[in-house]
Design goal:
Blueprint lengths: L2 H22 L5 H17 L3 H8 L10
Length: 67
């Protein structure tokens, strides 16, 4: 799995998990969706993604979107 796919998989997991937690545990977990969305939006404009830095540090090979 390359870095791009790992980032997309992680973002999708965070969104689905926060929706489930917001529905079954407490509505405040919906704020995690807002955080994930804002992070995706800023990375689209700046090219910087904090999760990409962590995945690179963990040894995931680079993709084409995040260098």
């Amino acid at each position: 799995m390359n870095l791009d796919r790992a980032i997309f998989a992680f973002a999708g997991t965070v969104v689905l998990l926060s929706l489930a937690l917001g529905y079954w545990i407490h509505p405040a977990f919906y704020l995690l969706n807002a955080f994930a969305g804002l992070n995706l939006l800023q990375s689209a404009f700046t090219g910087f993604c904090p999760a990409a830095v962590i995945f690179k540090w963990a040894g995931v090979k680079s993709g084409s979107a995040f260098h």
